[in-house]
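User: Can you model how zinc ion sits in this protein?
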Amino acid sequence: MSDCIFCKIIKGDVTAKLVHSDERLVAFEDINPQAPVHVLIVPTEHLNNNLALTAAHAPLMGEVFLLANTIARSYGIDATGFRVVTNCGSHGGQTVGHIHFHLLGGRPMTWPPG
Ligand code: 5GP
Ligand code: ZN
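Assistant: Here's the modeled complex, given as structure tokens:
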């Protein structure tokens, strides 16, 4: 989608600190990190949010969590733990309309979320 910031990052038209890139998923560091490690895992397919997922995306969702594990290990936060979260819609706190998963770690997380 032409006016989508994450699609622009995926195309390489906007720079980001890339952590991973393949046909189905890219991962890059969040521009406004909320933790010492804050990586966004983003499907290359433009989907507005979770509600756009279909049964055909089920394997992709598995890949998201496997990639989160790989990235967590590469940042050395696997032993201390981390959080993977996706925000959906306005009450979910979603600000970018391209589905993505936050990988947060490097400090203790609080619960409940704000
Ligand atoms: P959301 O609020 O939709 O769950 O998360 C969107 C995330 O994207 C935010 O954490 C925000 O900091 C990040 N973000 C927004 N624009 C950019 C950008 O241009 N580059 C990068 N690396 N992250 C961005
Ligand atoms: Zn997009």
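A couple of observations from the model: Residues 1, 4, 6-7, 46, 98 surround zinc ion (ligand 2) (CB under 6 Å). Strands lie at 18-21, 25-29, 37-43, 82-85, 101-105.
User: Helpful, thanks.
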